[in-house]
Amino acid sequence: MQTNRLLPLFKQALLTFTVSLILFGPISGLVLEGFSFRNELTRAVVLAAIVTAGRVAISLVQMTSLGQALTRRMADSGVGVTVMTGTEKSPVLILALLFVAGLSLPFFADKYFLGIAILALIYCLLGLGLNIVVGLAGLLDLGFVAFYAVGAYLLALGSQYLGLGFWGALIIAPLLAGLFGMVLAFPVLKMHGDYLAIVTLGFGEIIRLVLNNWLDFTGGPNGAPVPAPTVFGLEFTRTAKQGGVSIHDYLGIPYSADYKFWFIYLVLFLVVCLVIYAVERLRVMPLGRMWEALREDEIACRSLGVNHVFTKLTAFMLGASTGGLAGVFFAVHQGFVNPTSFTFFESALILAIVVLGGLGSTVGVIAAALVLTILPELLRDFAEYRVLIFGVLMVVMMIWKPRGLVRIKRPAFFPSTTTDAGPLPLTAKAEVA
Amino acid sequence: MDVYILLQQLFNGITLGTIYGLIAVGYTMVYGVIRMINFAHGDVYMVSAYIAAITLAVLTFFGIQSAPFALISVLVITCAVTAVYGWAIERVAYRPLRGSTKLAPLISAIGISLMLQSYVQISQGARDQGVPTLISGAFRFGDGVHFAQITYMQTVILFASLIAMGILTYVINYTRIGRECRATQQNIRMSAVLGVNTDRIISTVFVIGAATAAVGGVLVTFNYGSFNFFIGFVMGIKAFTAAVLGGIGSLPGAVLGGILLGLTEALFAGYVSTDYKDVFAFALLITLLFFRPYGLLGRPEIQKV
Amino acid sequence: MTSISKLFAATAIASALLLAPAFAAETIKIGVAGPYTGANATFGEQVFNGVSAYVNDVNASGGINGKQIELVKGDDACEPKQAVAVANRFVDQDKVQAVIGHFCSSSTIPASEIYNDAGILEMTPSSTNPAVTDRGFDNLFRGCGRDDQQAVVAGGFILDTLKRDKIALIHDKDTYGQGLVDAVKKTIEARGITPVLYEGLTRGERDFNALVTKIKSTGANAVYFGGLIPEGGPLIRQLKEQGVDVVFVSGDSFAQAELVAAAGGGANLKDVYYSATPDPLADPATKNVQDALTKANVTPANYVLYGYANAQAVVAALKAGEDLKAQADWLRTNTVDSAIGKITWDEKGDIKDFKFVFYTFDDKGTPALVN
């Protein structure tokens, strides 16, 4: 290879090595022990060498033609969205197959896998909910976990004080969470971008802190128990506790803890499918299009007569309702809720799902929810390196796909093949508003 | 007696607020230039606390005992090393995402935050670390029983913050690099057209932000004496709140917001309830933003059609 | 319905047949669950170190009935969500035969439902919340004291030994800290004394000056703190710095060497007391424990000892029989001579007459027994 290429490479390697030595030197090299320290400098040098080697390797790959092609592909961020023509065939067969595969999962999976699947589906729901707010309506919400907490605590406290059951909570939670969404939405209507972010963050923290501090009502940090779900009055516990009959006694089959998981999984799976369907329908309805229009240009929308209050409010409320639903499932799956499950980090994780999935893309959100819930479990074998690797992968995924795993496709407003365009979308909006 | 308690709470609030302000500067500067909330900033502060303690341990190992000298050298070394962290983070995690969606760097920042916490935990262990008391003693006002006091270390905090803010204000207002920063803040594309190396300016902003966080980190470490790999989280949220309270993007706003937040917390905790002080702080923030949607000193962004 | 149940049964049998050979264990697996990442990671590590120190010894001397013990780590980060995932993994994938854990009560409670369903012996080395055993699970044992046991001792200590009556109660709004402080509150209120202050601080903060000034303004002469060292250390330091003249009493979470550094040196630890199990290192009868720990290169800290003791109990129970009933019955009827003293369990699974003693510090920060 030519020297004129090697010299910059060497300079780069030297710079990387120096910088990483400064970075790793103190933290990895000198370990604090009381008020003194232990010398581990070789560790720092080895780390710096590894990083430098990695950097040089990347540079070398970039010099080859294959690497250059890759770089070009990476650089091509492809701004904008694809608009569907409206003539695409809906992939009914694939969807049906996926649906059947999802439904039959409990028959193949063990409880551990099913537990992760339930968690992944819960995060799907959360992602779908936040996607309405952030992805479609473009309102940055950092306190989404509040609605999740509302749903979870509704079931826990509702059963404790009002005798509310799983099914009741499933119906009330979206309404209550939607109400909370409305309460939050009113003060933030005037705000933009990052001011919105901090207000929602504050709202999420307030909810968590109140749940944690209001000891008499919520149980504070000790949390609250959640009863097992029932179906037609049949319970999923070894011995019936809520005055009914255990399902295994009723059916005359031996008791297994798996039934409860199967049941939760199946109901959750159906709810997720329903929500996906609803969101997809909403996106082609005037309301959904108003959300997306508002995300792109608020001023233009308002001058065209879009009622921005109504639009933002519905986005917040529908998003919150979905979060509330997810909360009910979380509570019933855990059998116990306490405020540690609803920290700011959860909000950040849900936001990561939406952004990583590709803002606004339903398929992307589902894919990202699966990735971000299953990944930490797969990383369990790395023990304490788990979080480190998770963080690295998050950065790498973001750099690799800055616009998300799945590119957003905007549904066609009207079939482009028809010559008669029909009523323009904007006139349709005025009716709703 | 009550006067002294009130005075003491005011001192408490102002010292805490100054530190919030120092950390908030990093948020506000980064936000001003690239409109991004740097969620890893709290963890940069955490790293600086470790570097400060390690530097002090090394100095003690070489037999340096003089407190002022130790304090100043720790401050300088920590600022320098932390600044490299700021630079490296920007280079690795944010620069590749420039020109992408606004939220992409946010998620990347969360990833960096996890990485830093985990890296420090693995390298240094999860246990709590501490530094010995470097300067002890206090100015006391009042008689022997009822008094308010401000410790020497708190005085150092106030002065060091003042000096740091002074240097920063000078750099931003009167130097070439400061002018370029401000120009970039106004309009990044225009500045680039006019020959400002915007990439370098953004790096500089991260370096300055990390260095001020390091000043905060050193002062906090010496004042409270203990830290672990998790301290960045709470401080990050608090400082971010302070930055928004003052008007994100405004330097004096960050300091004002920090002091206001510190005072609110101290007074509410002192006279009402410690349990609900954070609830009150966030509620105050929401109320304030309701009436002043751009914070105390923030300028409304002109919306271009 | 029957066809479905047949299908269920068939799948269950099929999966059992498929999985059985893969998991046909020549080793006995014990799951050790706790926080290995996150804010409480230090404690999880300590428990694991204690457990592995004992298990290495057992393995070296032939294991349990000839079978080697294999430890499986399960990181729950003290989050209920992850605790359930860990529990399911232990039961279904790792097929553990006993669990030592979880660490935080808020993780132990949801996870224990799963172990209870699966019929696996569980012993928690640190979840002191009464709700853990009050649910009446037959498989769940507590290898440490209960908040209410410790609180009775602590309340009596402040009132009778230290003779202080104006008590400020501070907790960290977490399961352990608040549970402990609430129990102390009950104890002293039963004696007719109302605390002068009852407040919670925020975990993760470092500046408690406002709270300290408030404590000072109430004229308290004793502070009882329920919480952990990251907050307790700075609180002690700031109390001293503001010149508040109080005795400071806390629970067994303070039995950690880091306290000295966190509180800013041994000088600040004057008039600081904590309740803990009698230090086994001072007891010549535990020479073998110390040797084992030194051999494993582990500094004996509080939760290391709890981990060690829990491992002793669990291994002894596993030696007693293959099924849960035999193991649980053995624990309920026998005494374990453990690293934290001789322990026996009652019907609920709590340690009978768990002994707490008080420690204070000399000026170098070395703990010393209070007589």
TrEMBL record, chain A:
The record's listing under InterPro entries reads: ABC_transp_permease (IPR001851), LivM-like (IPR043428)
Highest taxon of the source? Answer: Bacteria
Which CDD domains does the annotation name? TM_PBP1_LivM_like
Q: Which UniProt keywords apply?
A: Cell membrane, Membrane, Transmembrane, Transmembrane helix
Q: Where in the cell is it found?
A: Cell membrane
Q: Where are the transmembrane segments?
A: 45-70, 91-108, 114-134, 139-158, 164-188, 261-279, 313-336, 348-375, 382-400
How does the UniProt record describe the way this protein sits in the membrane? Multi-pass membrane protein
Q: Has UniProt tagged this entry with the keyword Transmembrane helix?
A: yes
Predominantly, its location class is membrane
- Quote one Gene Ontology molecular function term: branched-chain amino acid transmembrane transporter activity
- Give a GO cellular-component term: plasma membrane
Among NCBIfam families, the record links this protein to:
PRK11301.1 (NF008450)
Query: What PANTHER family does the record tag this protein with?
Result: HIGH-AFFINITY BRANCHED-CHAIN AMINO ACID TRANSPORT SYSTEM PERMEASE (PTHR30482), HIGH-AFFINITY BRANCHED-CHAIN AMINO ACID TRANSPORT SYSTEM PERMEASE PROTEIN LIVM (PTHR30482:SF20)
Q: What protein name does the entry list?
A: High-affinity branched-chain amino acid ABC transporter permease LivM
Q: Which organism is it from?
A: Shinella kummerowiae
**The organism's lineage?**
Bacteria, Pseudomonadati, Pseudomonadota, Alphaproteobacteria, Hyphomicrobiales
From TrEMBL, chain B:
Q: How does it sit in the membrane?
A: Multi-pass membrane protein
Q: Which InterPro entries match?
A: ABC_transp_permease, BCAA_transport_permease
Q: What stretches pass through the bilayer?
A: 12-32, 44-64, 70-89, 101-120, 150-172, 201-222, 279-297
Localization (cell): Cell membrane
- A GO molecular-function annotation: L-leucine transmembrane transporter activity
Main localization, broad class: membrane
- Keyword terms of this UniProt record: Amino-acid transport, Cell inner membrane, Cell membrane, Membrane, Transmembrane, Transmembrane helix, Transport
Q: Which CDD domains match?
A: TM_PBP1_LivH_like
Gene Ontology cellular component annotations, sorted alphabetically: plasma membrane
Could you state one GO biological process linked to this protein? L-alanine transport
Family matches, as Pfam families: BPD_transp_2
Q: Does the keyword Ligase apply?
A: no
What PANTHER family does the record tag this protein with? BRANCHED-CHAIN AMINO ACID TRANSPORT SYSTEM PERMEASE PROTEIN LIVH, HIGH-AFFINITY BRANCHED-CHAIN AMINO ACID TRANSPORT SYSTEM PERMEASE PROTEIN LIVH
State the similarity comment.
Belongs to the binding-protein-dependent transport system permease family. LivHM subfamily.
| Protein name per Swiss-Prot or TrEMBL | Branched-chain amino acid ABC transporter permease LivH
TrEMBL record, chain C:
Q: Domain named Leucine-binding protein: which ranges?
A: 27-351
The UniProt keywords, alphabetically, are: Amino-acid transport, Signal, Transport
Cleavable signal peptide:
1-24
InterPro entries referenced in this protein's UniProt entry, alphabetically:
Leu-bd, Leu_Ile_Val-bd, Peripla_BP_I
Q: From its record, what is one biological process in GO terms? A: amino acid transport
Pfam families according to UniProt: Peripla_BP_6
Protein family: Belongs to the leucine-binding protein family.
User: What is the protein named?
Assistant: ABC transporter substrate-binding protein
Which source organism?
A: Shinella kummerowiae
